[in-house]
Amino acid sequence: MKPEGRTFIISGGSSGLGLATATALLTQGANVSLLDLNPPPADISPLLTNPSRTLYTRTDVSSTASLQHAVSATVAWSSSSNAPLGGVICCAGIGYGERALPRQDPNADANKVKTMSIEAFDRVIAINLRGTVDLIRLVLPHLAAVKGEGDDGERGVVVVVSSVAAYEGQVGQLAYSASKAAVAGIVLPLAREVGRSAGVRVVGIAPGVFQTGMTSRPRKGGSGAGKAEGEAKKKAAVAEMSAMNSGMIEWPMRMGKPEEFAEFVMGCVRNGMVNGSVFRLDGAVRMPSRL
């Protein structure tokens, strides 16, 4: 599908992977509707502040009412801009870490044991999983009403963001891994449902460790070294920045760049045969049980 002249809804579109995707789509001639709690930065691209190309709606993805308002605003804007819907890209998400079995006070009685916060678990599920499904279900009727394009009659594409944590969840990632595994799990059944019936493709991406606000840490300076020592220091530096275990870094020896994620999304949008699968985008990283 050609992104030019189409409107794409991006949750979490004001930062990180969502912002990079929005910028890439704008560069390729698409319009974007950004759903986020905060507006996009004005210094990334002038197109992000151009009201004819970018719509920002303050949105809480854990709230159906908030999502419905944003989708309604997008549909009206898309119609007035003569840029029909082209897809929805669900990038909104949060990370959270807590053990299912917290360390206990050996002197505490049976009525004072520590347990994992179910409220925090519910919040992760509400944003990462429910927010994704809720947005998709609200957009699909409008996407299915768009005129089909090309020989296949394609109407649009749904892209969801899972994580390598869906496959290699670490200690303390119970809520996050569960939410991202569930996001991966909706891809095939949804693709099977809305492909033939509506001409809509569904794709999942499971990123490894990328440079986002969720992963990046300040980097310390270093000095030159020989090749072997330099590679070791490079691994250590990447590990320090992202809280990764340096032993799990393969190639390239760095975190992924948001622009690389966006480039992969663009490929998914353009290639009509990409459907019903979740693709790892991780540089061969395999997560250990502990960082």
Strand arrangement within the widest β-sheet reads 3-2-1-4-5-6-7
- How many helices? The count is 7
Mean pLDDT: 90
Number of domains: 2
Q: How much helicity do the residues have?
A: 25-40%
Shape: globular
Strand content: 5-15%
The CATH class assignment of the largest domain is Alpha Beta
Regions with pLDDT < 50 over 5+ consecutive residues? 216-229, 231-242
How are the elements arranged and paired?
Elements (H helix, E strand, L loop, with lengths): L6 E5 L4 H12 L3 E6 L17 E5 L5 H17 L4 E6 L27 H27 L11 E6 L12 H12 L1 H12 L1 E8 L19 H16 L15 H13 L7 E4 L10
Parallel strand pairs: 1-2, 1-4, 2-3, 4-5, 5-6, 6-7
Helix pairs in contact: 1-7, 2-3, 3-4
Outline the structure in words:
The protein starts with 6 loop residues before the first strand and ends in a 10-residue tail after the last strand. The protein folds into two domains: 7-102 and 112-212 and 256-281, NAD(P)-binding Rossmann-like Domain (Rossmann fold), CATH 3.40.50; 216-254. Mean pLDDT is 90; it is low at 216-229 and 231-242. The chain has seven helices and seven strands. It has helices at residues 16-27, 64-80, 118-144, 174-185, 187-198, 227-242, 258-270; strands at residues 7-11, 31-36, 54-58, 85-90, 156-161, 200-207, 278-281. It is α/β, with parallel strands linked by helices and 291 residues long. It has a seven-stranded parallel β-sheet with strand order 3-2-1-4-5-6-7, with helices on both faces. Keywords: NADP, Oxidoreductase. It holds the Pfam family adh_short.
